[in-house]
Every structure is written in structure tokens, then in C-alpha cells.
Write a structure and sequence with these properties.
With 475 residues, this protein is mainly α. The chain folds into 2 domains: 1-225, no CATH class; 227-475, no CATH class. 86% of the residues lie in helices and 0% in strands. The chain has helices at residues 2-25, 28-36, 38-49, 52-58, 64-96, 100-108, 110-127, 131-154, 159-181, 191-225, 228-261, 267-294, 296-303, 312-322, 325-337, 341-353, 356-365, 367-393, 397-424, 429-450, 454-474. Helix 2 (28-36) crosses helix 11 (228-261). It starts with a helix and ends with a helix.
Length: 475
């Protein structure tokens, strides 16, 4: 978990810094052009992965034939979807009335094939919990791709700086995966291996198709019925929300899935570990999201400037929706760990259909109204998934709510405190943001420690243990 946090923290820090520079150099409309294509690339990547990586991770001792079979399927699928996107590019450009999209799709689509080559090679690193290597791969690829993008942006390449950032990141990441993993399996295709892995992975594929379509359908709606500029404002706000909420989910997902899979048949032990996971996740997510909503004004103005001012209310509202994102998906995680990928799929379909009214309201009343509906949708999603997963490990919704409620109440008080600090100070936005962050951190540590908030004490114990081990080694 420590290395996974280092991975995500270093990644987000580098992306955050590069993102600030790029946002100052580029316009909301240029970000909007990339946002219009998000759903197409996410769906293509989903088909390439197809749940096979999880199937390999979950399998006790996957053979060389298993790895090779999935590799061949991934690469063939990647080539197919690049071709499909290439042929569809003119139609996509016509739909959004943006001629530039044709050439952007033709070039950026190459990263689908590049990613396909690296997915299976990454599995042994994840399966062996080698998050130190994964962290090195992510950080190096992010730094190199960010440097390339900034160089191009300074030279006036506009939206193409974002295109080449994505391609460079995929290429460097894939090369480094082979350097660290050193896969030794030979190319061979096993029909039996494919059937076994596809039986499990296909349900996850269907679930993820609904998930990615749902996550990106808002980009299509805003891009089609509003403008590239409005979409750019939304994508920046959503990106900053994801920087905390989705990143935390990815860290926990990457570590918890292989770790909990090892104890999937020990219900009492699984429940205990999962309960601690829920409490820590809710505590960290709520603090980050309430804190981000409270500092949104100074966050946007201080970091990326006044041309992004209209994204402030989007960021405040999206932060509230982001609170429930990790909780929803770690509940779905239990279904996969226990082998209920069919239930996982049905719940994804149900929870995403519930969100359709939010899209309709957005078309009628605007983007802000759509995000408000999105908040209620995520709350409902959490209750539905928590109910299903709770039955498998005897951890009902009422117990989960009891465990997470103290964290939510404390996070709300932190948000109010940080917001009032921002209103009282008269410094420039960036200075005020730094003061808000520092005082918010002090408030969190003192109050959490004073009131013995359980997730804080767990995190504190982990940090102290790590520190004492390093001190002992140094001595």
C-alpha cells in the first residue's frame, strides 16, 4: 500500500504540475477537443483489457499459455479498434462539428495498440505486489510525457501537445514494463485457456463498458449540445476531482484486489480486512473532497488563472459526487473477489441506468443541474452495491453507514473551517490556498487525534511503524 500511494502521489504531483503549466498555455476549447474523444478511447481500452488482467491476477498459478493467449488477444483487439476508430474519425468529427478531430483520432489512436502490448506484461508485477516497480514505471513515463507536452505547448502546437503527451506516456510506460517485468513466456494460443479466462473476464468487460460509457457520456452531451469551451471547463474540474477521488480508488483497488483475493475463502478475515478498508477509504476521500470543495475558488484562480473561473462551481459540485466514487467500487470489488462477476455486471447496468435522468436534466437545465443529479445518483449507487456485497461477507449497509458516518461529519466540519479561513484572508489566491491547506492539515491531525477517530489512528500507526523501521535500519 505504501508503494502504491507513492506511485499515485508522485504521478499526481507530476501530472498536477504539468497540468497547471499546460492549462496556462492552452485554452479550455483545446482541452475540450480531447474530452470529446474520451469515451471512444476508454471504450477501446476496455475491450483491449476485457477483464483478462483480473482473471490472470485472480488465478492461483496462471501458465505461460494463459499469459500468451491473453497477450495475443489484447494485441489483436488493439489493432482492430485502432482501425475502427481510424475509419470512424470523419463521422466523429462531423458529429461534434470539429474538423480537427479526424487527424487527432488518426494519430492518438496509435496509443491503443501501444497499451495492448504492455497490459499482460504488467500482470506479474501486480500479482506479486511489486508496486515499487510499478511506481517507477508510472513516475518516469509521466515525467517524460509531461516534459514533451510542455515543450510542444511552448512552441505553439496547441491541442497536439496533449495528443503527443498521451502517446509518449503510453510508449514509455510499455517499454518500461518490459524492462522491469522481463516476461519469458513464448507466443502460443490456447483455446482452453481463452475459454476459461473469457468466461470470467467477459462479465467484467460488459460491466466496464457500462462504466466507461457512463463516466464519459457527459463529455459527449456537453461537447455536442454545449461547446468545446464548456467541455474544457468541465474536464478540468472533473480532472481535479479525479486527481483525489479516482486516484485514491485506483490505489486501493490495485492493492486490495490481489491482497483480498488471497483470503477470499476466509469470510471472517475478509470482512475484518474489508471493514478497515472501507473506514480508511471513507475518511481519506471525505477529507479530500470536502477540502477541495472548500478551496475551489482559490484552487482554480491561484493555480490555472482567471480564464478558468467558470469551472469553479463545477469543481465544487463534482467534489461532492467524488466522495462516493471509491466506496461504490470497493463494494463492487468484493463481488469480483468472491467470483460473482455476473452480479457485478447486473449492478453496473442498474446503477448506470439510474443516472440517465441526470443527463436529461442537464440538457434541460444546464451543466450545474446535471452535476447535482449526479451527486444523488452516486449516493444511491453506494447503497445498492453495499447491500449486495454486504450479504456475501456479513457486512450490511447499516454497519457500513455506521462506520463511515463519523468520517463524513468530521470532513464536513473541516470543509467549513477551511472555507471560513479562505473568506477571512485577503491574500492573493495562491497564498490563501497554501494557508488553507496548511491550517486544514493541522486541524485534521489535532482534531482526529483528540477525538480518537479510528481511521486516523490506523493510518497514524502504519506511518509510525514505517518510520520506526526506517530508523532502525538507519541505526
Amino acid at each position: 500500500m505504501s508503494w502504491a500511494f507513492i506511485d499515485r502521489f508522485a504521478n499526481q504531483l507530476s501530472q498536477f504540475i504539468f497540468g497547471i503549466i499546460l492549462a496556462r498555455l492552452l485554452s479550455p476549447a483545446e482541452y475540450g477537443l480531447i474530452g470529446m474523444l474520451a469515451i471512444f478511447f476508454e471504450i477501446a481500452d476496455t475491450f483491449v483489457v476485457a477483464g483478462f488482467s483480473e482473471a490472470l491476477i485472480r488465478k492461483k498459478d496462471p501458465s505461460d499459455a494463459d499469459y500468451s493467449t491473453v497477450f495475443i488477444v489484447n494485441v489483436c483487439t488493439g489493432v482492430f479498434f485502432y482501425g475502427l476508430l481510424y475509419l470512424s474519425a470523419p463521422g466523429i468529427s462531423w458529429f461534434f462539428n470539429e474538423p480537427q478531430l479526424t487527424s487527432i483520432i488518426s494519430v492518438m489512436g496509435v496509443m491503443i495498440i501501444i497499451n495492448a502490448f504492455g497490459m499482460v506484461a504488467r500482470v506479474p508485477l501486480t500479482k506479486n505486489l511489486d508496486f515499487k516497480s510499478l511506481a517507477s514505471i508510472s513516475v518516469i513515463s509521466n515525467i517524460i510525457s509531461g516534459a514533451v507536452a510542455i515543450t510542444l505547448a511552448f512552441q505553439g502546437f496547441g491541442v497536439w501537445s496533449l495528443v503527443w503527451r498521451n502517446i509518449t506516456q503510453s510508449f514509455v510506460s510499455t517499454v518500461l514494463v518490459y524492462v522491469f517485468a522481463k516476461p519469458k513466456w513464448r507466443l502460443q494460443f490456447s483455446t482452453a485457456a481463452f475459454r476459461e479466462i473469457f468466461a470470467f473476464g467477459s462479465k467484467l468487460l460488459a460491466s466496464r463498458l457500462f462504466l466507461e460509457s457512463y463516466n464519459n457520456i457527459y463529455y459527449i452531451v456537453i461537447g455536442k449540445f454545449f461547446s468545446a469551451r464548456e467541455l474544457g471547463l468541465y474536464t478540468r474540474a472533473n480532472g481535479y476531482k479525479d486527481m483525489f477521488s479516482r486516484t485514491l480508488h485506483n490505489v486501493i483497488q490495485s492493492v486490495s484486489f490481489p491482497a483480498l483475493s488471497e483470503i477470499k475463502d476466509e469470510d471472517a478475515r475478509l470482512k475484518n480486512a474489508y471493514r478497515r478498508l472501507v473506514m480508511i477509504t471513507s475518511y481519506l476521500t471525505a477529507l479530500l473532497m470536502f477540502g477541495l470543495a472548500a478551496t475551489a475558488n482559490n484552487f482554480i484562480l491561484g493555480l490555472i488563472g482567471p480564464k478558468w473561473t467558470e469551472s469553479i462551481p463545477y469543481l465544487q459540485l463534482l467534489s461532492m459526487a467524488g466522495i462516493f466514487y471509491p466506496l461504490h467500487y470497493i463494494n463492487l470489488n468484493i463481488l469480483v473477489i468472491k467470483g460473482h462477476s455476473g452480479t457485478h455486471f447486473r449492478l453496473e447496468v442498474l446503477t448506470k441506468l439510474i443516472a440517465l435522468p441526470a443527463i436529461a436534466i442537464g440538457l434541460l437545465f444546464g451543466i450545474k443541474a446535471m452535476i447535482v443529479c449526479l451527486i444523488f445518483t452516486w449516493v444511491l449507487d453506494f447503497f445498492i452495491t453495499a447491500s449486495s456485497s454486504g450479504k456475501l461477507i456479513n457486512y450490511p449497509v447499516s454497519e457500513q453507514v455506521k462506520d463511515i458516518l463519523p468520517s463524513f461529519l468530521f470532513a464536513a466540519s473541516l470543509g467549513i473551517f477551511v472555507f471560513l479561513v479562505g473568506r477571512l484572508l485577503v491574500f492573493p489566491p495562491l497564498v490563501t490556498l497554501l494557508i488553507q491547506g496548511a491550517l486544514g492539515f493541522v486541524f485534521t491531525v489535532i482534531v482526529s487525534n483528540q477525538f480518537r477517530i479510528k481511521p486516523f489512528l490506523e493510518i497514524k500507526e502504519i506511518v509510525l511503524q514505517k518510520f520506526s523501521k526506517k530508523t532502525a535500519i538507519a541505526n
